[in-house]
């Protein structure tokens, strides 16, 4: 019986709207969310820019970002696990729906250990060879954070050693100290975590089992944003995020009277930009990303923080003298100018790191001052 596969639906991002007016009589709502998509693919939100020109010398500027809960961002996203769902192209090749092409140089040992089983956590792949190379070709240059290698703990293919490498162009980097032994693993949850933290367009896994058939149970790939850049690569963890910026304009200044992030949207800037606002609004599901070399400031004395903030190192964030946060996460790894932070209710996370060591506070059902 031939297998049938349902291809994932990938919708496009929302558009951009701008309204300039003197009198506002609009009573409807703005819909700029991305098109429906199959999880884990999440299209980004569009923007609504509103400028009240009643006072032409001091127009009131507002920015709305709303993804209609296509995704939620009440917790800061720093890395993403890539989906391994896909379809077999041949005995030697598996095409993942996210565009990764996986190949092996050795056929399977038997029909119980097909190559495609390497990408299904409840099965395992065992080759006919004692030395096997698996290559994962990425469709776009991607910043690889970490890989988890799940060995076979008993039976055919157990005690297989592995070596993990990545490749960018012609440059190959080996990320393990030679071959890593997997002897002694005892459960299907056991895995070896290898940090790569490099851009790559290929991942290479070499397997070796000296006496018999080499095998592996499962692999997981985690990607992240490159911490040394303030723009997105072709592939981005924040694929569902919206970036605003002006091309070829270093140090652009974006000044608003109000910024609203809701519906699981993520807002970020490009290049060395500065974003300021007098007021913030949201529904506690959105996120603002401040990338390296950028600045963000809320120009008020007190506010209730309605969306999460993630500021990377080499950023400057200025928050109100008094800040309440509820159902959001604030992670600041750069320079902060903040006053009293009062986080309350359930599941709130506050991280402050001024390049002198990370301080993390998790608050549950109590106040912190």
Main traits of this protein?
2 domains, 8-stranded mixed beta sheet, Jelly Rolls, mainly beta, elongated, single chain, 369 residues
Describe this structure in words.
This protein has strands at 16-21, 47-52, 60-66, 79-81, 86-90, 93-96, 101-104, 125-126, 131-150, 161-168, 171-174, 192-208, 215-216, 218-224, 241-244, 253-262, 266-269, 274-282, 287-290, 295-298, 302-305, 308-311, 316-318, 322-326, 329-332, 335-337, 340-344, 348-352, 359-363. The chain is mostly beta strands and 369 residues long. Mean pLDDT is 79; it is low at 1-6, 72-76, 236-242, 244-250, 344-349 and 354-369. The strands form five sheets. Strands 4, 5, 6, 7, 9, 10, 11, 12 and 14 form a nine-stranded antiparallel sheet that branches. The protein is built from no helices and 29 strands. It has two domains: 16-76 and 231-363, no CATH class; 79-224, Galactose-binding domain-like (Jelly Rolls). Helix content is 0%, strand content 46%.
Name the shape in a single word. Answer: elongated
**Total separate domains:** 2
Please summarize the sheet with the most strands. Answer: 9 strands, antiparallel
Distance between the termini: 64 Å
Percent of residues in helices comes to: under 10%
Which ranges are low-confidence, i.e. pLDDT below 50, for 5 or more consecutive residues?
1-6, 72-76, 236-242, 244-250, 344-349, 354-369
Instruction: Report mean pLDDT, rounded to a whole number.
Output: 79
- Tally the beta strands: 29
- Please work out how many helical segments DSSP would assign: 0
Q: What class would the helix/strand composition place it in?
A: mainly beta
Give the percentage of residues in beta strands. Answer: over 45%
Helices and strands, in order, run as: EEEEEEEEEEEEEEEEEEEEEEEEEEEEE
Radius of gyration: 24 Å
């Amino acid at each position: 019986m031939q297998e049938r596969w349902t291809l994932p639906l990938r919708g496009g991002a929302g558009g951009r709207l701008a309204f300039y007016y003197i009198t506002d009589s609009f009573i409807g709502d703005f819909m700029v969310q991305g098109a429906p998509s199959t999880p884990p693919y999440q299209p980004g939100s569009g923007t609504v820019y509103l400028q009240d020109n009643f006072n032409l010398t001091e127009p009131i500027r507002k920015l709305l970002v709303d993804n209609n809960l296509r995704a939620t961002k009440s917790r800061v996203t720093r890395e993403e696990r890539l989906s391994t769902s896909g379809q077999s192209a041949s005995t030697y090749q598996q095409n993942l729906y996210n565009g990764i092409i996986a190949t092996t140089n050795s056929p399977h040992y038997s029909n119980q250990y097909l190559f495609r089983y390497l990408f299904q956590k409840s099965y395992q792949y065992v080759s006919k060879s004692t030395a096997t190379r698996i290559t994962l070709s990425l469709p776009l240059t991607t910043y690889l954070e970490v890989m988890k290698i799940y060995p076979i703990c008993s039976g055919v293919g157990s005690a297989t050693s592995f070596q993990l490498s990545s490749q960018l162009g012609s440059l190959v980097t080996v990320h393990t100290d030679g071959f890593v032994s997997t002897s002694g693993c005892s459960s299907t949850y056991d895995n070896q975590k290898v940090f790569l933290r490099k851009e790559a367009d290929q991942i290479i896994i070499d397997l070796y089992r000296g006496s018999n058939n080499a095998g592996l149970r499962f692999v997981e790939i985690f990607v992240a944003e490159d911490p040394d850049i303030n723009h997105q690569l072709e592939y981005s963890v924040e694929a569902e995020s919206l970036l605003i910026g002006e091309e070829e304009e270093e140090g652009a200044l974006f000044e608003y009277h109000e910024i609203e992030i809701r519906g699981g949207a993520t807002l970020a800037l490009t290049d060395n930009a500065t974003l300021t606002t007098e007021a913030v609004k949201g529904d506690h599901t959105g996120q603002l990303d401040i990338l390296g070399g950028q600045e963000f400031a809320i120009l008020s004395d007190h506010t209730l923080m309605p969306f999460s903030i993630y500021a990377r190192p080499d950023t400057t964030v200025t928050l109100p003298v008094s800040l309440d946060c509820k159902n959001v996460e604030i992670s600041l790894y750069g320079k902060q100018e903040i006053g009293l932070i009062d986080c309350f209710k359930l599941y709130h996370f506050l991280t402050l790191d001024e390049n002198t060591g990370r301080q993390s506070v998790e608050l549950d059902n109590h106040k912190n001052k």
